[in-house]
Amino acid sequence: MSETGSFPTMRGGEQRLRRMRLTATGLLLLMAALFLLARHNAGLHPAWGYLLAFSEAAMVGGFADWFAVTALFRRPLGLPIPHTAIIPENKDRIADTMAVFLRENFLTPQVVARRLRGMNLAATAGRFLAENRTGERRLRDGATGLMADILRSLDQNCLGGMVKEGLRAQLHKIEVAPLVGQMIGAAIADRRHLPVMDSAIRWIGRTLEENEELVRSIIAQRANRLFQLTGLDARIANAVLDGMYKLLAECAVQPDHPLRHRVEEGLQDLAHGLQHDLALRAKVEAMKLELLADPAVGYWLDGLWERSRAALLRAVDDPEQALSGQFGAMLAELGGALERDQRLQLLINRFARRTLVGVASRYGGQIVQLVSETVRRWDARTVTGRIEMAVGRDLQFIRINGTMVGGMVGLGLHFIDGIL
After folding, report:
1. Residue 187 forms part of a structural domain
2. Which H/E stretch holds residue 378?
3. Cα(177)–Cα(169) distance, integer angstroms
4. Distance between CA 195 and CA 76 in Å, rounded?
5. Are residues 287 and 386 in the same domain?
6. In a 3-state reduction of DSSP, which class is residue 261?
7. Which of 113, 128, 166, 185 is within CB 3.0–4.6 Å of 271 for a Cys-Cys bond?
8. What DSSP character marks residue 231?
9. Which of 102, 110, 103, 124 is nearest to 356 (CA)?
């Protein structure tokens, strides 16, 4: 995508540069023709003297600026004139100067912090997510296309292994027990466990109803021969089932039932133990490590990566569909929250500043070195071509201006000479 997108732009730049170069050269040739014409007719009328002075000075100015512009990129007429082909001869020094400029003006922690201090990155991101303007759609389409190219070009076995090992390494670092304990404690404090408890009661009731015959057979097997002969085993089974149904019904309709309180107390004890009981935390950690070492978990992680990769490819192949529906509504809601909530903006902006300042502090030198080494590896023709493509059109305007300014100076000097 990048190649097909940049090729027409590069060809368009070359064509514009060629047109400006032909224009500047054509103007210089026009001045030469005017010079020959004025020289031939110099004695016929005083006006030819003014045209001669104008064209002669214009040729001098045009040639001088042609030499100056050409000397930046190559040797004029191929002659080994000193201090010409300035850019190709000083490519390495340009690379080092560019790297130092980038480092001192953009990648120091102080500069990054100062530039980010007045920027509201969170609000900008919020507007980007909440709105759907044409420019943002182009940016999104370009980003999704780039992501699709990257996902398809990388070695999937290697990339999947890296993702799996990275996820496994992160899971190894995380101590699960305190997190689970905090989640259970927070759920109990906010009463979010009540719907779960109600669902569990209903599930137990349905399971008991579906397995009544199994319960009766177990009680009958455990009863002695006398109970079986007198039929007391069936009465005991009925009593047990009726008692369990009654207990479940009472728990379902009574929010303050003692059994519910016992379950809550057990959950609170579990949450406290997961956070503060070192022995229990060690057991949970051992269970986690044993689970991560199980090959079945590896297969599950492989499947998770493949499903995630397939979902990402579907999303980047059809960004309109991916950003519509529930996911798009969620992003729009997130964008609205980022735009409205100043406290959230403060937190995100502070995090972004710290992150970018940290990146500049840790990797600024490496980024600068990368820029310097990349430019150094370019051959002189590549460097010359890229710089000339960027500024060559403006330099041709310098040739045109030099030609016209030189002509005006020559005309002025001729006028002053005629007066004196």
Report:
1. yes
2. none
3. 17
4. 85
5. no
6. helix
7. 185
8. T
9. 110
Using 50 as the pLDDT threshold, list the residues of the chain that sit under it: 1-9, 133-136
pLDDT at 257: 87
Q: Are residues 85 and 177 in the same domain?
A: no
CB 27 within 8 A of CB 37: no
> What gap in Å lies between CA 68 and CA 236, rounded to an integer?
110
| Residue where one domain finishes, among candidates 243, 265, 293 | 293
Domain count, the chain: 2
Contact 368, 139 (CB under 8 A): no
Q: Which structure tokens are listed for 153?
A: 């070009």
Count of residues in the chain: 420
- Distant-in-sequence contacts of 163-172, Cβ < 8 A, 24+ apart: 163/305, 164/298, 164/301, 164/302, 164/305, 167/301, 168/292, 168/301, 171/288, 171/292, 172/289, 172/292
Residue type, 182: Q
Supply the DSSP string of 274-288, one letter for each residue. HHH-HHHHHHHHHHH
Dihedral (CA of 254, 259, 261, 266) sign: negative
| Token pair in block for residue 293 | 């070492």
Q: Quick one: tokens of 304?
A: 């998770």
Residue 119 in domain:
no
Among the candidates 293, 324, 351, a domain finishes at 293
Residue 373 covered by a domain: no
Q: How far is CA 217 from CA 17, 207, 227, 244, 295, in A?
A: 94, 16, 13, 16, 39
- Taking the C-alpha atoms of residue 43 and residue 40, their distance in angstroms, rounded to an integer, is 8
Q: What is the dihedral of CA 110, 114, 116, 117, to 10 degrees?
A: 130
Q: What contacts 122, CB < 8 A, 6 or more positions away?
A: 338, 344, 345, 348, 349, 352
Whether pTM > 0.70 for this model: the answer is no
**What is the rounded CA–CA span in Å between residue 221 and residue 240?**
15
Q: Residue 402 has which token pair?
A: 């030099």
- Cβ neighbours of 239 (radius 10 Å): 12
Place of tokens 């986690």: 288
pLDDT tens figures, 372-415: 787 777 777 777 777 777 777 788 888 898 899 998 998 898 88
d(CA 87, CA 74): 8
Structural domain that includes position 183: 172-293
Tokens of 253: 């309709």
Q: Is 334 exposed, middle or buried (0-12, 13-18, 19+ CB in 10 A)?
A: middle
Q: What's the distance, Cα to Cα, between the start and end of the chain in Å? A: 68
- Residue 310 within any structural domain of the chain: no
